[in-house]
Sequence to fold (496 residues):
Amino acid sequence: RSGAAPAYGETNRAMMYLAQYGYLSPSVRNPSSGHIMDESTWKKAIQEFQSFAGLNSTGELDEETVKLMSLPRCGVKDKVGFGESRAKR
Amino acid sequence: YALQGSRWRVKNLTYKISKYPSRLNHAEVDAELAKAFAVWSDFTDLTFTQKRSGQVHIEIRFEKGEHGDGDPFDGPGGTLAHAYFPVYGGDAHFDDAEMWSINSRRGTNLFQVAAHEFGHSLGLSHSDVRSALMAPFYRGYDPAFQLDQDDIMGIQALYGHKTQVDIGGGLPNPTVPRVTTPQPSAEDQELCSDSKFDTIFNSADGSTFVFKGDNYWKLTENGVAAGYPRPISRSWPGLPGNIDAAFTYKNGKTYFFKGSKYWRYNGQKMDGDYPKEISEGFTGIPDNIDSALVWSGNGKIYFYKGSKFWRFDPAQRPPVKSTYPKPLSNWAGIPDNIDAALQYTNGYTYFFKGGSYWRFNDRTFSVDTDNPAFPRSTGYWWLGCSSAPRGTVGGNARLSAPSDEHH
Fold:
């Protein structure tokens, strides 16, 4: 059970971050609702952020990823409009 | 770059600063925000006018915490600012809890963050190019700030190139067509009798030069400038003749290649101890290349030799991936063994071979279709040779003003 519940602190902050910038559903940020999500969604969201930020797409909340999430940045979502279908040439 | 999907239908936009930051002088903020808008008007025909009151396109506010749009700020660090895309109104909000600074390494640079947010107000989403202004992360104070090629392509995809004469201090940029006073043109017998040349490139100030043997010509809107050819060595001291390839990179430096060597010039001044070995400065690129260009599609450097091409990305390690070389036939419709190539100041990419040339369509990734079709006669369209055929090389010529390819 404890494994299932999101570990508070780092993981929770990362979840809020990924939801704020368009990598996870905004409902994740709703403090009044518990949010269970399957592993693949969580992993994919981390990989997408890592790919966008130029990190190795490990899908793991590793130290480099956590560090980048703490950098000052713009409040606009990363994934919006055509950004979602960003196709590499 | 990524486009959000909306843009302004008008190019003359107005803005007002409804709420100033609590710790900065209002006049200084006015100046910094005007500079931030100028970042975008330097490369487009957009204009920005500050108003003190009334209806405007873009409203700017410095706020703390919850400020009425359901997207509260979070105090120092974290989120610095956010802005709304044109379809949502275009307004820009800045977190007044930040230590906003001007021309200082301390605090958060107001100009850079504002220029980024105004990119959103104009319709740009975040870019995944780390060096781009529209990347989401604040990179710290950059006294030598310049827009990345990626940002320029994004804003010009929305609002086109800059066409008006730039009265202000706009940055020189080889991809921006410059309205220059027309120079007298002259037909050059040598080039008109044999329009094959060694290389063609733009200099950092947007001039276009053709190299052939020991001589060079400067091109005008309608052909070659009067008073040419001139010896290459007179204008580029230390540079030999019979150059293989040349291009100007976004750092404003021009690179020349011959055999196994290359030279770097800043304008027409050698930029250090050259020549150097290509294998040293452009690891992964072979000697004796046919041509090179900075491709308008992604701002990367491409080298062509025989039936192959290589992509060189200075920001990557290694700069040439192991998947290269690739067959030149990937550039659909471009023949092997080309003589020269360039990204012209109109933003298009051109390839030259013998007396013919092809215009490349970056979106279809193939030779452009037009009437007359490509290949066309280089002499007629680029060198002002009225006697050369206008139409498709070997095809019939349709009478019209020569060399409107330049437009």
User: Anything to note?
Assistant: Residues 40 and 59 of chain A are 9 Å apart (CA to CA). The two ends of chain A are 44 Å apart (CA to CA). The beta strands of chain A are 73-74.
